[in-house]
Amino acid sequence: MALEHAVLEDLRRVVGREHVIEASNDLRIFERDASIEGAAPDAVVLPATTAEVSAVIKIASKNRIPVVPRGAGTGLSGGAVTIHGGIALQVTRMRKILEIDPVAQTALVEPGVVNQELSLVAASHRLFYAPDPSSQKACTIGGNAAENSGGPHCLYYGVTTNHVLGMEVVLADGSVQWVAGDAPDRIGLDLCGVLVGSEGTLCAITKIKVRLLSTPPSVATLLAAFSSIDAASQAVSAVIGRGIVPAALEMMDKVTVGAVEAHYHAGYPTDAGAVLLVEVDGIPESTRELMAAVRNVLAENQGYAMREAQSPSERDLLWAGRKGAIGALGRIKPNYYLHDGVVPRSRLPQILSAVGEIGVHYRLPVANVFHAGDGNLHPNILFDLRDRDVLPQVESAGEEMLRAVVELGGALSGEHGIGLEKNAFMPWVFSADDLDAMRRVKDALDAHGIMNPGKIFPDPQRKAPHLAGRTGLAIEAKWW
Amino acid sequence: MTTEPFARLSDDDLATCVHCGLCLDACPTFRQTGLETESPRGRIYLMTQWKRGQLPFTEDQARHIDLCLGCRTCEAVCPSGVPYGRIIEAGRSEVEQMRRPSPKRWLARTALRQLLAKPRRLRTFGAMTKAAQSVGLTSIARSGRQLPKLRARFQPPAGGIAPAIGPRKHRVAFLVGCVMPILYPQSHEAAVKLLQLAGCEVWFPRAERCCGALLAHNGDLEGAERLREANMEVYRDSNFEALIVDSAGCGAHLKDFYPELTGRVKDLSEWLVEIGLPAPERDVKMRVTYQDACHLAHAQRIRKQPRDLIRALPGIELIEMRHPEICCGAAGLYSTLEPAMSARILEEKLDDVESTHADVIATANPGCQMQLESGLRSRGSTMRVEHISELVIRAFLH
Fold this sequence. Notes:
The structure holds two protein chains of two kinds. Mean pLDDT of chain A is about 90; it is low at about 470-480. The two termini of chain A are about 20 Å apart. Chain A has helices at about 5-15, 25-30, 50-65, 115-120, 140-145, 155, 190-195, 230-240, 255-265, 285-300, 310-325, 325-330, 350-360, 390-405, 425-430, 430-445, 475-480, and strands at about 20, 45, 65-70, 85-90, 95-100, 105-110, 125-130, 165-170, 175-180, 205-210, 215, 220-225, 250-255, 275-280, 305-310, 335, 365-370, 380-385. Chain A has a seven-stranded antiparallel sheet, sandwiched between helices. Chain A has a five-stranded antiparallel sheet with strand order 5-6-10-8-9. Chain A is about 35% helix and about 20% strand. Chain B has helices at about 10-15, 30-35, 40-50, 60-65, 75, 85-100, 105-115, 120-135, 140-145, 180-185, 185-195, 215, 220-235, 250-255, 270-275, 295, 305-310, 335, 340-355, 365-380, 390-395; strands spanning about 160, 170-175, 200-205, 240-245, 265, 285-290, 315-320, 360-365, 385. In chain B, the strands form two sheets. Chain B has a five-stranded mixed sheet with strand order 1-3-2-4-5. In chain B, strands 7-6-8-9 form a four-stranded parallel sheet, with helices on both faces.
């Protein structure tokens, strides 16, 4: 539904004519993030300042128009998809690093700052920003905070919320607020903790104060091969069971390794059933000791062809391969569908065999690449959207995998957020009372429900299963 | 003539994009605008919709294709192996067929085709420009102001052969090309001298023409194909180990569009690192920064060799700028066709360049050189831009 002329004029007055996109053909280009579903916004608005964000949200509030904050659009749960139309509030023009305080080890950034850019700039102070989603080359800190993103190194360092000290946000009425700030402890009600990971349903983020960490003086990265996913999973449990918490502990299966090697030539063994990528860091002595311990445990658990990166460039290449893995799957099939469920680590062998069986049952290839150390799965179901009949199968397979996760005592999402893809499954893990408690927080901050509607909470306006069953939306209207 | 719309765009090529978005921040126009429509992912999505008949072709949306620099930085960072260079050239070519004729574009294309068809035409044009410069006429037009001060154009040696210095170890052909000999004869002269020093006998094919890159990058695939055919007549029956190219745009085009030369087209730095230069003869006491030429770094994936050549110079200090792999906004004719966006990209590049406090910016492509020079000139900077060949030859007494 196109916005009224007067509303568009108001928006243009705030951000400037060239920063409001409303041509319907162009809006179609903004309909997706890195997940599957799509729905075009009614306008894309690109503010440059907090004041502009506030003014835009005031206009939206007055006219009861949905507002969906959007960073780079690399999210994997549909968080930035304007499923109920409205304004896509794109923050990519707000990309200034406002301050780096090397003494306090903090940075103040605008939401459109690219994750990796912050670490690049902080490197001159021998500091880095720890949460490192695989999309860190492109994804924004604002998006990371909204989704409470993870990443390989979050096993040891913690996820985004552990690194956000405070935020400036714009609430649904357009008011600008700071939540928390410089103090290491969040005093009073932890509003910042509520807003980080709220997926744009409570506020738009306009500034983020983050913690930076000292670059560890030494790092060791080990690649180990295993004959099967099962063997690799046992090894993961054994490492953690021994009380070792590496900085990162990642797994890729054979399918993924094949795709990754085709692009990166990082030296991953393509004949192994699975590989583990293990990194430890710290002072040189402890790194050496920890790595020796890791090697022992892996060897005891059928690890073979172990190879330690001999130089920073070799390590970078191994990580580039891991972080580009999901994109590399395009070499096998043009589309992927994945739920990032989490299971207790001890259940990894069971869940991975369940995932494998579901793939076989639906005759769909599945590529596993995931944060094994924290039991955070990424079973990528591979398919081709041009094949009309496959989508219901894909969706059912994904749902079954997630169901298996929950049955093993797991959670719906480790880092991608609930968004659009998993909101229908929220009642599997939360009681009506739980959901109601969350709903009351939402209502308190966003009385008219304009902030990213249709996300996180089960959406009564949509039927589950959603992907294949919907009509009128992008996926149905366009792909066939 | 093809009748099916967008026939040149391959649906399978387009389908390799999984929409992950890892390319976004590698794209200079996305970095400037923050808009999905000016990103590689957005452009692929748009072309996919066109190809599948889900969005109608409109002139407004064709602007998103125009605004692509064709730098292919996205291609180098894409884990899925999307052949973006092939997609955008096919897309451009389709756009040129679909769109309503614009006098500016028609003129640009016709002028380009005519100029590049015969080497003599461009030489005459160069001589005229040189004369115009001497009386200050070129400063009237923006694109005129961008030009470097023209010198006497590069002339291959009599007999078309430059002998090896010392024992002859290799026999190579050298692409003189269309604009390089006019705009930057000194780059060619240094390049040829380096090849001779490395033991190459250098052959200059007489009837060689423009490689076709300038045409292909602007959606004129047919014009490029005609030049390729003419050039293959020259190369086909000749005996040479490698065709050496010191202009990144030409090298990329020859590697992609001349299947008969597969494996034999070599960028100058690629070749020199492969065969080895003799030991440097003197120090080059300079602070240098290196700007990756897009068609070298991304299209040919050559980033290490130029840096290796620079680091091997005694006394030199190589300082990396922030984002050396991001385009400077030159992109062939882009700086003329899209001056506003080109200037925005250039400004950011100049900030990064200037913060290195280097004496010299080395690069490997005439377009980049011209763009950086004109940008630095307008900022009143004293930094010089040199082709990597000019920098490396400083280490040799010749």
